[in-house]
């Protein structure tokens, strides 16, 4: 049985269980005499943090990939365009969740229940503190490390920023406690985190920091004297421990032409071998998400992502004789990695099937506006479900489960960390990348026979690193990790002075559209959505834009804080 978050049950429990208590004791002043007495008190307290996982009523991870080089919206990314300014306040510099977790960690030991009944919730608190701190570190770099709740007269309110590697060590220590204290899959309620999820998250954050320190070395964003080896080793070890536990496996494999698509369109992941944590919806209870691909959603997949899918002979499109070009949507998927056709909509694809009533996809919504617009013409099919039994009151409402963590990431984290350490064997590739390729019937990657690709994003790196990064991009497309990958790899050269493109435009398919008025094309006929708004392409500043600016009010509150490179206080 998989771990899932059932929104309705969670909120019903929280608000009915604490209604009287809230009437007597405000949330910011919990009475130790009344509250910290039972294991159930601890469970109730940490339940609030499950809502901090990415939550979008579109219901999928794609919103977090918006404005990476995978997926773009109607408005360009201020991060990639280098147009961010220092905010007066806010801007992601938030500490309330960390303070509340710290309060838990300094009070849970007053509960008189046996350790065996409280350890799970203590482990969850350590997980969430690591989660909140990593979000801050990823965005701001050096940040104050605070491990106890502060008061108005606490000296720590005026402390300097703690170096990122020291913060990272503390994050790892918290995750190690979470791994130790939380129960294994199958030993804890299906609605909760477990030890294996903490291992996955440890592999994610350590891979991030290891590659960040490696590729940002000798820049203002790096860590003096570090090449990232320490964290890459931790990432490798955490992922391998999860893999060796054999509690999860890759879903499907019997139907390569549809398994990948079906994986992301299920209402219930309770018995799915790959999903580690997910969010459940129930239309009957008024809890629904939007069917994400019924319309364009004001976004679109980029030509860059589409071009990264290999051909069925295992070769890139620059080298394969099987490639049929991209003059039409149907052409681009011929002889290509099946994940491509299972990620974007194609003409005649069934969009919705209810009995004998079938609605077919005809053409992308590039001629629409607002939420109905597909910006690039490559319209996202991933996360949809063509079978209409999960649709009820509205054609657009559905209850497809939202995946938060899945096992495939562990395989990709492991192989990338091994490669960055220079320790990859063919057995490692067979254990990871080739298992993912087996699901869709793609040829195996042979590390001793990697075809050259003139279009590699990272030509200065080894062919193996390039292919591992390609596999990660394709398998995890539109799942919310791409921008994080771009930043940790210091990959500004991939997009600076360039604009994202879409599909090749066909006037015959859109006779009412006027080129240069309501659709813009580059010199080769590809949709160029930012042609008028990004005249010179993305102007990302490599000496500034890898981190967020700290809000200006924080320097008034704490004169010991320093601003990130390239920004004014």
From TrEMBL:
Q: Which Gene3D superfamilies does the UniProt entry name for this protein? A: 1.25.40.390
Fetch the InterPro entries from UniProt. Answer: SusD-like_N, SusD_RagB_dom, TPR-like_helical_dom_sf
**Pfam families recorded for this chain?**
SusD-like_3, SusD_RagB
Q: Which domain of life is it from?
A: Bacteria
Q: Which cellular component, as a GO term, is one annotated location? A: cell outer membrane
Question: What subcellular compartments does it reside in?
Answer: Cell outer membrane
Q: Where do the SusD-like N-terminal domain residues begin and end?
A: 96-207
Which keywords fit this entry according to its UniProt record? Cell outer membrane, Membrane, Signal
Main location class = membrane
Key word Lyase present:
no
Keyword Signal among UniProt keywords: yes
The RagB/SusD domain covers which part of the protein? 299-567
Q: Which family does the record assign? A: Belongs to the SusD family.
This chain belongs to the protein called RagB/SusD family nutrient uptake outer membrane protein
Give the species this sequence originates from.
Mariniphaga sediminis
């Amino acid at each position: 049985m998989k771990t899932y978050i059932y929104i309705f049950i969670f909120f019903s429990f929280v608000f009915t269980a604490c209604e009287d208590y809230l009437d007597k004791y405000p949330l910011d002043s919990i009475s130790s005499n009344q509250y910290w007495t039972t294991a159930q008190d601890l469970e109730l307290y940490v339940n609030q943090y499950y809502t901090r996982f990415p939550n979008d009523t579109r219901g999928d991870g794609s919103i977090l990939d918006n404005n990476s080089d995978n997926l773009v919206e109607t408005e360009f990314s201020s991060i990639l365009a280098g147009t961010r300014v220092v905010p007066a306040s806010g801007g992601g510099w938030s500490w309330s969740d960390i303070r509340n977790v710290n309060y838990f960690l300094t009070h849970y030991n007053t509960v008189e229940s046996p350790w065996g009944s409280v350890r799970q919730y203590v482990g969850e608190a350590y997980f969430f503190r690591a989660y909140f701190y990593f979000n801050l570190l990823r965005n701001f770099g050096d940040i104050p490390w605070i491990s106890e709740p502060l008061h108005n007269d606490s000296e720590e309110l005026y402390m300097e920023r703690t170096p990122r590697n020291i913060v990272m060590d503390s994050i790892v220590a918290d995750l190690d406690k979470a791994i130790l204290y939380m129960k294994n899959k199958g030993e804890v309620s299906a609605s909760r985190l477990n030890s294996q999820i903490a291992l996955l998250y440890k592999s994610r954050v350590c891979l991030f920091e290891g590659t960040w320190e490696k590729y940002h070395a000798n820049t203002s964003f790096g860590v003096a004297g570090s090449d990232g080896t320490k964290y890459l080793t931790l990432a490798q070890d955490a992922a391998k421990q999860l893999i060796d536990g054999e509690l999860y496996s890759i879903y499907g494999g019997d139907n390569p032409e549809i398994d990948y698509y079906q994986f992301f369109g299920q209402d219930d992941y309770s018995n799915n071998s790959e999903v580690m944590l997910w969010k459940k919806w129930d239309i009957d209870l008024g809890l629904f998400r939007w069917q994400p691909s019924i319309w364009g959603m004001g976004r679109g997949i980029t030509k860059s992502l589409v071009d990264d899918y290999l051909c069925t002979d295992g070769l890139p499109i620059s080298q394969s004789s099987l490639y049929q070009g991209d003059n039409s949507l149907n052409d681009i998927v011929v002889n290509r990695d099946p994940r491509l056709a299972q990620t974007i909509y194609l003409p005649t694809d069934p969009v919705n099937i209810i009995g004998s009533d079938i609605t077919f996809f005809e053409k992308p919504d590039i001629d629409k506006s607002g939420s109905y617009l597909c910006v690039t013409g490559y319209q996202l099919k991933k996360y949809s479900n063509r079978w209409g039994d999960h649709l009820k009151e509205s054609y657009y409402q559905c209850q497809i489960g939202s995946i938060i963590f899945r096992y495939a990431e562990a395989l990709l984290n492991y192989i990338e960390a091994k490669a960055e350490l220079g320790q990859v064997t063919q057995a490692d590739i067979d254990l990871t990348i080739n298992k993912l390729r087996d699901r869709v019937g793609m040829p195996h990657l042979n590390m001793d026979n990697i075809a050259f690709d003139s279009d590699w994003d990272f030509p200065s790196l080894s062919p193996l690193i390039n292919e591992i990064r390609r596999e990660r991009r394709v398998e995890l497309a539109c799942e919310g990790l791409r921008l994080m990958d771009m930043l940790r790899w210091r990959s500004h050269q991939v997009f600076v002075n360039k604009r994202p493109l879409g599909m090749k435009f066909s006037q015959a398919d859109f006779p009412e559209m006027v080129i240069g008025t309501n659709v813009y094309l580059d010199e080769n006929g590809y949709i160029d959505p930012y042609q008028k708004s990004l005249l010179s392409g993305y102007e990302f500043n490599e000496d500034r834009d890898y981190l967020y600016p700290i809000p200006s009010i924080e320097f008034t509150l704490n004169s010991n804080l320093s601003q990130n490179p390239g920004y004014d206080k």
